[in-house]
């Protein structure tokens, strides 16, 4: 495939979230796979809804996820400016094209006030009419010295058909679309008008976007046809849904929405890149762990699904856990230590203590900040012996083992994982305990659990005072 040019066109009305990150990522993968160009174009014409740092957040977190681009506001190319308001203010591009359509009789000025338009709709509703399209009462009116907007004159009895990469052949009828506004009273273009013009002027070859944009396509085709411009190839990705198969929305409080939040919680960018790539697309082989380089190599736009993509939190946890496991201990420490320090954990400990902590819990981490909960669950929860664990340590020889090991710990200075490992073996030799009957009682005696992380390192992390107290507590219960 030659001369591929795709665009991610965010609006700065909010921050980068899972949905638009997926749109950006699929465009990025498509462009890089086909050795084409990936453009980031800022569609900021909805001035009232634009938020502070909206653009900055979008750009920063696209970069954090590992995406780069060939043209944008920070990387000018031959098709700029890359911000629609700048194109409007500097080039007057949209007004010129709107005037061209007026001259051709394909658009007209509408002088109706918002109140008049609202009244017209209410009258139609009162008469029981289902068609609430604009009545065209301004069509053919002579020019007036009054504020106006410009409406596109929708052709009668026309069908708009396009071959969607994901959905196949899609058709819309013109009678389902009323004469729509292309320029507002303030001269700023509406989304569909600016979008169609910019796609043409920027030589966009493919438009890949969410399914919720599919109803925008006929309006954009109308503009392209009005100027006899070539259509780009469209592909509308499936909706992302929650566990209840409802469209993912900001009201889904149990699903983290914004990429910034994932960053702050200690998710790894490559893991999130991997997970998002699987929301509505699948590789030719059943695999879930794929690096950015592998995803670029394997990306096939025909494997985008037409069915909704479920946001699977457990799958995200699994993927991020796999990426964390692949980190070196030093990298994992860099990821997790700031979360511990923020919670005043380990402030008096040396670096080796943090290293042991990470080694003990790394394989159980789904994200960096989870290290705090794992630490607290292990070290700060009440130490209680009951049920099966209590019955197990009441076996013969256990009390002598624990007393022997406790005496060894009391004589250790300082405590160290290697020293504790040797002491466990020595206590086993002195008391004749080995295998399960050596390690299981000691583990229960210090953690109240039959299973857990590396025993000597776990003991070292507890510190001498807590370790001895737990051994004494257990011995008293035998």
Please, could you describe this protein's structure?
- The chain is mostly helical and 478 residues long.
- It has three domains: 92-237, HUPs (Rossmann fold), CATH 3.40.50; 259-325, Glutamyl-trna Synthetase, Domain 2 (Glutamyl-tRNA Synthetase, domain 2), CATH 1.10.1160; 329-476, Arc Repressor Mutant, subunit A (Orthogonal Bundle), CATH 1.10.10.350.
- It is 46% helix and 9% strand.
- It contains 20 helices and eleven strands.
- It has helices at 18-33, 54-65, 84-91, 93-103, 114-126, 191-201, 217-226, 259-265, 269-277, 292-298, 313-325, 329-342, 351-361, 370-379, 387-392, 398-410, 417-431, 436-447, 455-462, 464-476, and strands at 5-8, 37-40, 107-110, 149-152, 159-164, 168-173, 181-183, 206-210, 233-237, 240-241, 309-310.
- A three-stranded antiparallel β-sheet has the order 3-4-7.
- A hairpin with a 3-residue loop joins strand 5 (159-164) and strand 6.
- Helix 12 (329-342) packs across helix 13 and helix 18 (436-447) crosses helix 20.
- The longest helix has 16 residues, at 18-33.
- The mean pLDDT is 95.
Short recap of the structure:
This protein has helices at 18-33, 54-65, 84-91, 93-103, 114-126, 191-201, 217-226, 259-265, 269-277, 292-298, 313-325, 329-342, 351-361, 370-379, 387-392, 398-410, 417-431, 436-447, 455-462, 464-476, and strands at residues 5-8, 37-40, 107-110, 149-152, 159-164, 168-173, 181-183, 206-210, 233-237, 240-241, 309-310. With 478 residues, it is mainly alpha-helical.
